[in-house]
Amino acid sequence: MSASEYVPARSGLAKRFRLNLSRKERRNLLLGLAFISPWIFGFLAFMVYPIYVSLRLSFSRYSGFGEPIWIGLENYRTLLGDGLFWQSLYNTLYYTALAVPMGVVASMIIALAMNQPVREVSIYRTILYLPSVLPIFALAFIFVWLMNPRYGLLNFILVQLGLPSINWLGDPAWAKFSIVLLAQLGAGQVALIYLAGLRAIPRDLYDAAKLDGAGVWRQFWHITLPLMTPVILYSVILGLTLGLQVFVQAYIMTEGGPNNSTLFYVYYLYQNGFQYSQMGYASAMAWVLFVISLILAMLVFRWSRRWVHYELS
Amino acid sequence: MAAKAVSAFKRPDDVRHRQARRQRHYRWFREKVLPRLVLIFMCLLFVTPLYWMVVTALKPTAELTTFPPTLWPEQFRWSNFSEAVNFIPFWRYLANTSIITFFTVLGAVISNPIIAYGFSRIEWPGRDTVFYFVIATIFIPFPVLMVALFDIFARLGWVNTFLPLIVPMFFGNAFWIFLMRQFMMQIPHEISDAARVDGANEFQIFVWIILPLCKPAIAVVAIFAAVTAWNDFLGPLIYLQDESMYTLAIGLQFFRSLYDVEFNLLMAASTLVVLPVVVIFLAFQRFFIEGISLGSVK
Question: What does residue A60 show for φ and ψ, rounded to 5 degrees?
């Protein structure tokens, strides 16, 4: 900014917060803050304040009525000895560890296929994207029926193929996997994001590789995949956040069963907060989830330094 | 590698031709046939749940328990739809869902452009740092906040009203702010500068110049907001306790509470709930795809 625009601050308070801003900068700062003020308010009221409230509640016994009673670290101590807490944490991590890699592979296959010169590709794109905009509760109901052990279409197909039928939602060994399968209906959306990434890879890289005699497989392994790693990282982080929140499917399809095999973390949190009236305990669970999400996201970011390539971007 | 190439040149013509033809065939298979096979197979998998929903919705109850299941209804029972609608207070729930959806869209369309304008069309110190906070909030899971939010709204007396679902929508949503900002950044700055020279203030520039240019992005946000509100399950589950306040998402639960679920009725009701989303999606496909690509390019 030019020197002529620099106006020294007048009052003592202004001097304290002067930060060497020119008049134009200060005007823009106020304008900018005015425009984003709805977000600032929403952020404070619906994000920061609830986080503070849940921290306070996590140190209290609170049924939702009356005033919370301060009990210190009691809730956290109870959590450590709560078998269902550990079970729900295990279920959620198991689900996430299965659903995220499966999603990456499925989406990548779809995106690669869409990137080939197939004329009617927009039809496939539409069909494959459609399930990702549908309400998850409706898809869950449909899956309950598809996976019905006696009359379901899925077991009918298995039997036709000469395979044994599966008690999808009634068998603890299969219930989590059934919900992972349902999650794969969202692969079309991630595939579209991958497709945008594939289109951004310069053609001449492939031409050069072809001249050097690299086959399709080597082109994929040495050009496509490395250059797609930033997009893959994005989808992994997103999948991780969504995976840790998995709830509705289990609520509708299995009610947490059989044998608590689909009692996911958020489900148990929901039960404590809204069915058992233990809002303090649920808040402690919320905080643990918050910390786990942060740690996992950080681990993925750190791990990503080993496999994400940013050279071309 | 080089030695191989030389030896290939020395081969008789017919061998070379055969090789070239085989290569052409291989390429044709790899680029035209294989992708189609993969895509068609995936499409079949992805369409099956929807197909099964509609087919089941049309079957009479006796046909549900036949084995093997009929892939096409032997008998069409259209009355499933009227029965399903009468089984739950369908119109009431439709009205509730529509009200919430309408105000969600309204809130999203008003707040997000204003906020995005502050993050894209005005240069102010610290802007990009604050924007990182906006992005970071995407990664705070709603379940982390829901108990505390419920308590806060309960103290305000908002539980069992639509307010907890609607009011936050008027204060922006990180993902939609991001989308709008991406779009606004593409608009040349000269347009705003010219208006400033003509004496327009920032708010006038926003309303009269930038907003009209942002119609496509606003459409994207409106459609996403509508689908999000229509599909929401956890929010209504927590905040709406009185049966008369339920949305369609929660209302469908009533079909499950029967001792023996009548899947044809449940699927008929599900079809009715899903139908508007499918119609909106097919009608505004372009906007969905644009939203995804706007969101994925950084």
Answer: -130, 160
Superfamily of domain A82-307 in CATH is MetI-like (1.10.3720.10)
Given CB atoms, is B51 within the 8 Å cutoff of chain A? no
* Interface residue B27 vs chain A (CB under 8 A): no
Q: State whether B171 and B44 are in the same domain.
A: no
Q: Do A35 and B117 touch (CB under 8 A)?
A: yes
Ranges under pLDDT 70 in chain A: 1-19, 311-313
Which pTM does this prediction carry?
Answer: 0.88
Same domain, B219 and B256: yes
Chain A CB within 8 Å of residue B33 CB: no
Instruction: Report residue B193 CA to chain centroid gap.
Output: 36
**Is the CB of A189 less than 8 angstroms away from the CB of B292?**
yes
Q: Say yes or no: B116 and B227 in one domain.
A: yes
DSSP label of B168: G
Q: What is the pLDDT of residue B1?
A: 43
**Which residue in chain A is spatially nearest to B206 when comparing CA positions?**
A35
Judgement on whether residues B240 and B92 belong to the same structural domain of the protein: yes
Looking at chain A, which residue has its C-alpha nearest residue B285? A126
Query: How many domains in chain B?
Result: 2
* Residue among A36, A185, A241, A270 with most chain B CBs within 10 A, to mutate: A36
Residues B40 and B129 in one domain: no
Rounded to two decimals, the ipTM of the complex is: 0.88
Q: What are phi and psi of A69, to 5 degrees?
A: -105, 125
pLDDT at A97: 96
For B241-282, the pLDDT digits (tens) are 999 999 999 999 888 765 577 899 999 999 999 999 999 999
Which tokens in the block code for residue A267?
């489900």
Sign of the CA dihedral with B198 first, then B202, B204, and B206 last: positive
Verify that B28 and B151 share a domain, yes or no: no
Domain co-membership, B283 together with B148: yes
Give the closest residue to B101 by CA, choosing from B280, B291, B292: B280
CATH 1.10.3720.10: which residues of chain A? 82-307
Domain extent for B112: 84-296
Alpha-carbon distance of B219 to B217, in angstroms, equals 5
pLDDT digits (tens, 9 = 90+) for B81-140: 999 999 999 999 999 999 999 999 999 999 999 999 999 999 999 999 999 999 989 888
> A302: burial class by Cβ within 10 Å (0-12, 13-18, 19+)?
exposed
Let me know whether B19 and B117 are in one domain. Answer: no
On whether any CB of chain A is under 8 Å from the CB of B297, the answer is: yes
Q: What percent of chain B has pLDDT over 70?
A: 93
Q: What is the pLDDT of residue B7?
A: 52
CATH code where residue B279 lies: 1.10.3720.10
